[in-house]
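Cross-posted from the bioinformatics board.
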Amino acid sequence: MIYSLWIFDRHNCIFDKEYTVNQSTSIVNSKEQQSRGKLIYGMIHSLKSMSTKIAPGNMLRTLTTGKYRIHALFTASNLWIVIFSDLTHHELHETLDRIYELYLKYVVHNMLKPIDFKESAGLKESKKITSPSFIRAVDHVLCL
Amino acid sequence: MSTTAGTPNTASTANVSSLASSKTIKQIGETAWKNRTVKINAELFTLTYGSIVSQLCQDYQRDFKKVNDQLFSMGYNIGIRLIEDFLARTAIPRCDNFVTTSEVISKCAFKIFLNITPAVTNWSTTKNSFSLIFNENPLSDFVELPMDASKELWYSNILCGVLKGALEMVQLDCDVYFVCDVLRGNPQTELKVKLNKILKDEMPAGED
């Protein structure tokens, strides 16, 4: 069971999706999740820098708690892809790689959309990935 | 609470920080070139680029400074996207010094996207700038510059933009420019990359 998917770029959380409710009404980029996104960012950021400090070149990959497991992929361009799952999933790194490929296909290669999700001055909310084909493809990868 | 931080196991995720040997970087480049790159006809590519440049010269009424700038900005826009493509194919982590960066650029990036490996030389004493020497340049095959262009036009200036954009996305603020070009009658084609500063990773706004 996958609980949720989060994508962070250099500036902010740019995508989040909950799978815990029923699938047809799953929540994408919801406002209520914003503060949770910040918590997750903070937690992963600290653990990541800690694990690199203890052993240089070392990367955080998974994190297990009593009730859930976090799987994370970090790229050199500071994109983070984070999946929350239950404890039955031990390794999701292939899935993370596939989601990165989808990000490439639907976001990076989409020349009509800006690549940078930085908040512009006039806009209060930060920008998110809204491409329906991206969301569909991600669901396909995660929900099989 | 327990964390597992596994060590990378495949060649593609080889740990660049521990790479004393630049062989690994070369291997990553070659594997990605062989297995993960869609090839196109080199002549088609060369001619397409040529027609873009010549169209720009026409559009800007042979104001070659503007053409240079335009090529650079086209390259920049390619670079900021291309870096993700590059990282997805190679899974290279952040380089921990600029020497490694130069190796990755020459042996991986140019190998994957243009199938060339420019030589890295002319290091500054502080190790923050280097030159790439192009013995071959697929962009400029068959090209002869007309007299008026050969003083001002940097024909392959798009490469500078690509490097600038891509490096910026991995937090390296660099100046990238051509020093000389065989098309201008110089003995070799040399591109300079100069590191200004390493940008800080941005933190998102915290809880209020």
